[in-house]
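Weekly structure sync, notes
Attendees: PL (lead), two postdocs, one rotation student
Agenda item 3: pending single-chain targets
PL asked that the sequence for the first pending target be pasted directly into the notes so everyone works from the same version. It is reproduced below exactly as submitted, 89 residues in total.
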Amino acid sequence: APDLSKGTRFQLYLGLRVAGYHEYAATRTPVPFLADDIMETFDDDRSAEAFRLLGEMGQKGQVIYLTHHRHLCEAAARVVPGVRVHGLG
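Predicted structure, written out during the meeting:
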């Protein structure tokens, strides 16, 4: 992992967290999944795919994604039906 770029490390980290969530939720009541701006280095296609995966997770439990990047909020709204985007301030 140390030889990977920051963006690739973030993608690997998210992939492992998503897999872990599915493993946990298969045998237990899902707990909320929280992520804080881990897509800041993703391009548009990778962000859309990541939001699609988070949207699937949201069918089983609560997913909370925190960001200050408006384009990620817009991507989530395009990709995930019924997503709720809350703004602060």
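Discussion points:
- The radius of gyration is 13 Å.
- The helical segments are 6-25, 44-57, 70-79.
Action: rotation student to compare against the earlier draft before next sync.
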